[in-house]
Amino acid sequence: MADSALALGPGPGAKVQPSWPEKIVARRVPCRLAALGIVTSLGSDVDANWARLCAGDQSRFRARDGFLPDRSLIVAEVQDPLPEIPTTLAAHRCRNNAMSLAALRPIEPALDRALAGIDRSRVGVVMGTSTAGAIAVEEAVGRHLARGDFPDSFHYEQAEFGGTSEFVAAHLGLAGPCYTISTACSSGARALAAARSLLSLGLCDAVVAGGTDTLCGLVTNGFTALHAVSDRITNPCSAHRSGLTLGEGSALFLLTPEEGGIQLRGVGESSEAHHMSAPDPSGRGAETAMRAALADAGVEPAAIAYLNLHGTGTPQNDSMECAAVARLFPDGVPCSSTKPIVGHALGAAGAIEAAVCWLALSHLDEGRLRPPPHRWDGVRDPELPDLPLVEAGQSISVSGEALVMTNSFGFGGNNCTLVLGVAP
Amino acid sequence: MSPEVFVKRWSAWAPDHRDEEAWRDWARAPVAPKGNAHPDVSFLPAMFRRRCNPLARLMLAAAFDGCEADAASEPRTVFASRHGSINDSLPLLEALALRKPLSPTAFSHTVHNVQAGLFSIAAENRQPSSSVSGSADTFESGFIEALTHLDRDPERDVLLVVGDHPLHAVFAPLVDEDAVSYAFALLLSRSGSGTALRFELAPRRAPASPPPWPTALEFLRWLLSSEERLETGTGPSRFVWHRARA
């Protein structure tokens, strides 16, 4: 460095001569999902979420008035009280950020330990969201339409996507790379993929990453206009499936470049070049993402013990996803959609479902994996391949490394599949 | 310090600066570009063009120009925009306030990754793609996200497309920025020819006084200059960009 005043101190992980690793395999620095915080309709406590997921608890869905002009809508709404955003961050006050704040609480002790001795500019934040502070924006625009001005409490930071990550970094006092990924329903999965790369690139020594999304007028009315919403709790893979059920929530992880624990083992991605709001019916894009995730993890399909489906319950998603899964896993893979339990939290869904996989792996007990069941009416669609859907109480025998996979497919044909694993 | 990245190609569009020669002239004596014009994108089919909002037209024009000839289907892509499609959300938000039904097509075209999705369709590009936003540091955010794609697929170029269209008058008073319609594309690679550069994060010193144009265009000005380094960024850390040693 010619200008030593600009050089970073030789903090942990700082590289004097940074360069790309020689080979692809050499870049596999570990990526530990070291801590998790999660807020969903099931609760704002990690253990409560896991207990209700395993029980296939659908009691948290409720018919909610106020979103649609003419009727109620079944949603999975966060019902726990949310923490108040401090005055110093008042410009970021909105429900979306309050959910992020609630999800951060369980990981803050681990973060404090990880931050000891680390330069704050070496800790990154990558958030996925599709709504940002949509409720605040809807209220503000409604008032502007009626009165010609915005409420004093409204700030553009609540509206812009970058505000979602900026809030987390500001709250934690972090100064590293900080941005928001918004690729519709794959946003949360992508945020974790990006976080792993920030560690692999040597740009960060720790990253806080995940997704947060809020039930709001725009998404409830928008998906209703697309005829994508079911008038019952979503029923994925069923002959009677009639659409998705919207949810909300936040799942945030602390990722560190350490061995051990639960690892983010593989990332696979694709675009479909097909349609803005409908998947390629062949499932080609979904299959490409899953194959790429397996290749990235360096494993064969048979190594996957459990697949958390995107499983929205729309006719189009389930038919293309089941076809792609059946092609990739000719011998079958135990799978379930957890959207009939937590709803579809859109931009947070990829992170929430990575959390489901993380929780399943963290409860691995004497080689038995007990993923959440596939809650549905049990009526198979003869048009769909017969996937082995996880039943309540079912356990899966695992030998060696336990590997699980989760799919996220978004508008714009944006697909992202993650593989999580824990070594024996 | 980031790893070294090569800029294989670039393209940019602003109301009065559309081709390489115009940008080279601008870089020698830069003044703030003004206006909210957007390209006609006549290279796209008319039916498709109608689905493209002004930002999509800006970003798709820069994106296609930023790719090697007849190779728009090949790079991974990162689309970075501070405001994205919020101008198109406004009529939907007003319809909601009036409890009127939403247009499904309009709704599906307000997601932040609509420009990326439209590019994927127009270019038949099935490579991974992400769409990001980073407030006032959206250019830097896009660049970092592009690096993460180079990390995941070292052999493949990444096309970074950055752009914004001035905010609607309803929102504009809320944001302190030099609003102009623009788009900027960089074709980035881990090896090969072109300008090699890297960046590092450094602690903030005095408050930055950025030039009166978008950071992406300031980066372009620097790229076309012979200056050794550039400082950008408004967050708690500064970005210090360096030309890599030859």
Concise description?
The complex is a heterodimer of chains A (424) and B (246). With 424 residues, chain A is an alpha/beta fold.
Let me know the largest β-sheet of chain B: 8 strands, mixed
Weakly predicted, low-confidence segments of chain B: none
According to DSSP, the number of beta strands of chain B is: 8
- Rounded to the nearest angstrom, the radius of gyration of chain A is 21 Å
Oligomer: heterodimer
The chain-level mean pLDDT of chain B equals 95
Largest inter-chain interface? A-B, 81 and 79 residues
Number of helices of chain A: 12
Strand order across the biggest sheet of chain B? Answer: 3-2-4-5-1-6-8-7
* Shape assignment of chain A: globular
- Characterize the overall form of chain B: globular
Q: What is the SS-derived class of chain B?
A: alpha+beta
Helix residue percentage of chain A: 25-40%
What is the tally of beta strands of chain A? 14
Give the helices and strands of chain B as they follow along the chain.
EHHHEHHHEHEEEHEE
Low-confidence stretches of chain A: 1-17, 23-27
List the SSEs and their pairings.
The complex is a heterodimer of chains A (424) and B (246).
Chain A: E1 32-39, H1 46-55, E2 62-64, E3 73-75, H2 95-104, H3 108-115, E4 123-128, H4 134-147, H5 156-159, H6 162-172, E5 178-181, H7 187-200, E6 206-213, H8 217-225, E7 249-256, E8 262-271, H9 284-297, E9 304-308, H10 315-328, E10 335-336, H11 339-342, H12 349-362, E11 368-369, E12 396-397, E13 402-410, E14 414-422
Parallel strand pairs in A: 4-5, 4-6, 9-10, 9-13
Antiparallel strand pairs in A: 1-7, 2-3, 6-7, 8-14, 11-12, 13-14
Helix pairs in contact in A: 2-6, 7-12, 9-10
Chain B: E1 5-13, H1 20-28, H2 46-49, H3 54-66, E2 76-80, H4 86-97, H5 104-108, H6 114-123, E3 129-133, H7 138-152, E4 158-164, E5 182-189, E6 195-203, H8 215-224, E7 229-232, E8 237-243
Parallel strand pairs in B: 2-3, 2-4
Antiparallel strand pairs in B: 1-5, 1-6, 4-5, 6-8, 7-8
Helix pairs in contact in B: 1-8, 3-6
